[in-house]
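Q: Could you fold this chain for me?
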Amino acid sequence: MTTHYIELKAIPQMDMLQSEVIGHCMQILHQFLPHFEGRVGVAFPAYGLGRTLGGIVRLFANQQDCQQLQQQLLQCGLQDYALISEVNQTPFHTEHRCYSRVHRKGQSAIRRTEKRLKSQGRWDEAIRAEMQQRQQDTAFFPHFHLKSASTGQRFILAVKEKRMSQACVGVFNGYGLSNNATVPHF
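A: Sure. Below is the predicted structure, expressed as structure tokens.
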């Protein structure tokens, strides 16, 4: 249950945009969140503000997990980039949100499709035009930039916010996101 939370507020940096600070926070969080086995959910209370995720990240879990995560964040130097709150109890009678990852297809997806269809003898430039048009028509979602620890490649993780009428218990991924589990919104 997500009975408690901690809050990370981005500290303005001279050489980094607020969205970059949040991306840095999420990069560090991703080192710790998988160890909680899906019990920690992430929320962005200022989602969509200026087409960004906003400058606040809330982490929801039970009290023990929040305390453990807070200690890990304080020890890793994150306080140079974000103010880390105390562990607080989640208010009652809140709204609920579901934050999920959006997989956007880029130019590499077009290249892979082209290679596959050429080997099958079915490629046509009209297919490329259609795929590029579909990419342009895809809605914009706030996102952050990450670097894969395993491959070293940089990628964009886009986040979709969905308002939910009631809480839904579930498991969160290594970024604190879920396709169906909700977190409180206040």
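A (continued): The helical segments are 18-32, 63-75, 107-119, 125-137.
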